[in-house]
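New to this. Please check this protein:
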Amino acid sequence: MRTINALDSTLRSYLSAEQSNHVKRAYYFAEQAHFGQLRRSGEDYITHPLAVAGILADMHMDHQSLMAAMLHDVIEDTGIEKSAIGNQFGTTVADLVDGVSKLTQMEFGSLKEKQAENFQKMALAMAKDIRVILVKLADRLHNMRTLGVLKPEKARRIAHETLEIYAPIAMRLGMNNVRMEFENLGFGVLYPMRARRIDAAIRKARGHRNELVDKIGHQIETTLEQEGHNAEVIGREKHLYSIYKKMKSKRKSFSEIMDIYAFRIIVDSVDTCYRVLGSIHSLYKPVPGEFKDYIAIPKANGYQSLHTVLMGMHGVPIEIQIRTRDMEDMANNGIAAHWLYKSDGQSATGSHARARQWVQGLLEMQQRAGNSLEFIESVKIDLFPDEIYVFTPKGRILELPKNATAVDFAYSVHTDVGNSCVACRINRRLAPLSEPLQSGQTVEILTAPGTSPNPSWFNYAVTAKARTNIRHFLKHQTRDDSIELGIKLLEKALLSFETSLEQLPEEQLQDYLERHGYDQQNDLMADIARGNRLPAITAQQLANKSSTDPLQGGEVEPVAIRGTEGFMVNFAKCCHPIPGDAIEGYLSSEKGMVVHRESCKNLSDSKDNRERLVALRWDDEVEGEYSVELRIEVENRRGMIATLATRINSMDVNIEKISTEDKDYQFTYVDLAMVVQNRVHLARIMKRLRIIKSVHRVQRVKN
């Protein structure tokens, strides 16, 4: 365990004496605040903040981050408030400490909700000062190193959270050393037996590998020396968790994973990186398609390097990474590398700019998320390990996760572009919005004013920004739809009592809203549309009538349905109503208004719930296409299904589903689901099918 004096000598190697003294003062303040408190291991509590500060000192972080590390548990675990820290050490340090502190004063419904709320609070603090996450990562790293003293259940929970959230965040910020330690420690806690067995296998294999590693390394060094390159060649060894992940995801044995030899070549300039690449490719044959230039196009976390795979002696694959010393530092410490030189008020560049951009994205997600659990799910989606790089028509490069589609691309350009997207061109050809993008493609988004996100996009959008925006839009769209439908239903019900919303006295309506706990009229309308409050009973109460059956209040015109009402009007899958059918509605508390045919058997079964039934009719200007099912009895002949499909396609009708069922040795039933405009359109289709020679009978499926 490092002492404060040992830490002080480390700090003086890169901080001024005054800054180092500020850190020591924060240490003595924390020591007094935590006096008498012990860790689970029995050590004084102050050893933990000191160790966290030590981790940040090894990254050469600034003095304010180190002071926050010393004080990070003071607000949470002692009686000292944020204002007291602000008075002693300044508002910047107080804000950092507050951002790392958990929400201990609040009551939560579940542990999951508590974790989500804590993470959301930290994300908001990160938006103001990104050093919050660096202090938090150092705090979590020391906790992971000392998990052995906790109960196994709690240790597993912390390890799981670390692998799920904090290791990907460390990777997103380019902090590879922290990420690797998180993964190895978490793996050891969650899967101790697997970790022990892989570790033993690595030790055993190391003896056989060392000779070949030395031989290849010596060959590379000699070649580079002969060509006048000043380079350091380091043999890389995969860590436990990455071996386990590769074995699991690629379904490979341990020996197959260990057959690959990896080296890192560190040089002094970017120009030398490319020269060394040429030398290496002349030494061993490169594997086609395995070269990646992360110097020209850095990864989202700021990582830069040249990657290539070579085929060495005896057919041994060799992975090579070539980078400068600055890139090596950036690869290991990410955003924390050179913090002192990047945080002196200059404009953010490189990994710092990317990190701030990512945090800004988190802030936007948080504002659009419904709750903290939804927000943390979005963050998990966003912490992707693999990126692709695509181009806008003007040549701008955008980073997207693997399997991203044009919808993700549209939202990454701008939220408004995503919301009004209608089609896309990939490399100048029209392509479906659902097509996964590949690195190097040029993507052009076609937009149209007045359009809106499609619910089906949710099935193939992968970025958190796209999914959050689609969900946000659909939530509001659903509410607008439900308010509009609720007004229609209530107006229709009020007509039974010879009144309307306009005729109701304002104080009478306000009194009703207050008595039933509604803040505004729109909330009541939305509840009516969702089936949570019945329009007939609501109308009776608003009109102050005592009729035992408000539906008998007189002859009332049915509610007109146009088919464009949105998400709160659903068409029953049991009877498939289409324009021209006699219809009736059922108010479901789960699906809103469900439209059935009047003759539907399921509707008959609902007659006991008459107050939920709503008289409906089709509007004169009905729009859209509607699903319908036909059962066709045909002779058992080859090519009959193809004949039916061709005939239907010739009428520009889309077939949604087709299935067959044998009636007997002579006849077969063909069940077709298709979309039509109305009953006249359907009758025309049925007539065209009946004139096919081997068709015996065509009928519409009723239920």
The chain has five domains: 4-190, 203-336, 387-462, 471-618, 626-700. Residues 626-700 form a domain with the Alpha-Beta Plaits fold (CATH 3.30.70.260).
